[in-house]
Each structure stands twice: as structure tokens, then as C-alpha cells.
Amino acid sequence: MTDVAAILSSCKAMLTGHFLLSSGKHSSQYFQCARLLQHPEKAAEVVATVADRIKADVKAGKLAVDSVIGPAMGGIVVAYELGRQLGTPAFFTERNDEGVMALRRGFEIQPGEKIIIAEDVVTTGKSTLETAEQIQAMGGVVVASICVVDRRPADAEEPFPWPLYAALRQPAVLWDADACELCKEGNTPAVKPGSRKVF
Predict the structure, then answer these.
(1) pLDDT at residue number 78
(2) Is 93 annotated to bind ligand?
(3) What is the pLDDT of residue 159?
(4) Pick the CATH number of 4-185 from 3.50.50.60, 3.30.200.20, 3.40.50.2020, 2.40.30.10
(5) What class of enzyme is it (predicted)?
(6) Is 191 labelled as part of a ligand binding site?
(7) What is the pLDDT of residue 195?
(8) Does 104 show up as a binding residue in the annotation?
(9) Is 124 annotated as a binding residue?
(10) Which residue in 89, 90, 92 sits closest to 72, CA to CA?
């Protein structure tokens, strides 16, 4: 059995400290999956833990998949690798000039196309839900979503009305900025290691 946490640690993709997340919340842990994705063989091994479960569900008739879409930036490589392993097309959404997640670059969705949304990390599910809106507006059907790390808090409700397949479930400890325990300790300021603007 693949030890996903060990692989992430070996790539220095699993960080501990005081972090400001794109959601505006603070956390004591951060996953920088770009550090995993720079190693194609390790990334393929991690994504395979999800792809194998999807293949089993397809074979059992529980799921049908036509393509994979990943929200830019974190979902692009994950979507490509999942598409490669499933034998389906893979493409991506990206934010337009208004900051809205959109399908661009000539990518098209056919009416009724069954799509999996691929992410690197799911914390609130915001990017996945924004991508789902775009897919549904174009007539596609979201059948599942996947991520390398599902870091929703342990008591979080299911974020989507479809299955979420995660290579690793690692609940995060999250605080609102004005109630952050690490800020109260005052030892280290929160750092923003990600690439997305904090809203």
C-alpha cells in the first residue's frame, strides 16, 4: 500500500508552521503539492492511489468518466496525470480578467459530458465548486472530484454533492485570523506560502 504521507514528506510538500491560507484562515500545517508534482514518478504513484479506486468504480458500473478538468494552477498537473492514468482527455479552468473561474484556450465541453474535477488540495472546496459552476453552465456533468490532500477539518460537512476521492485525508486545524491560537502565542508571524491571492 502506498504511503502517501511519507511521499509528501520526502518531497518537502508537507509543511509545519504558522500559515495564512488563501481562504484568509490560519493553520499550523500547509501542503505545497507543487513540490510533489515536480517529481513525475512520485506524483504518478500518489495519483494512482485515486485512479485505481476510480477504475474499480467504473468497472463496477458505479461511475462513468469522459474527461478530467483541473482548476489552475494546482489542479493542472493533477488533472493531466489522472487523465493519463484513466485514458481520458484532461484540461483546465483558469481565472479570467474578472477573477471568475472559466474555461478558455478553446477547450470545449459537450452536453452531458461526464467530468471529474482534479485538485491538489481541498480545504474549503471553493475552486472545485467554481469549476463545477462553469462545467454545469456549459452542459457538462460533474460525476466526482479528486485531490491529493483532503485537509478539511475533521468536523467539516461534505463539500460536494458528488464523491470526493482523496489520496490522503489529513484534517487541518484552522482558525479565523482574529482567533488564531498561533497569533496569540506571538512567536511566529503567519506566512503565505501559496500562489493564490488571499480574499
Answers:
(1) 96
(2) no
(3) 80
(4) 3.40.50.2020
(5) transferase
(6) no
(7) 52
(8) no
(9) yes
(10) 92
The whole-number pLDDT of residue 74 equals 86
* 169 in a known ligand binding site: no
Q: Residue 125 annotated as binding?
A: yes
Whole-angstrom distance, CA of residue 119 vs CA of residue 184: 32
Residues of the chain with pLDDT under 50: 196-199
pTM of the shown model: 0.86
- Of residues 26, 12, 16, the one with CA closest to residue 198: 26
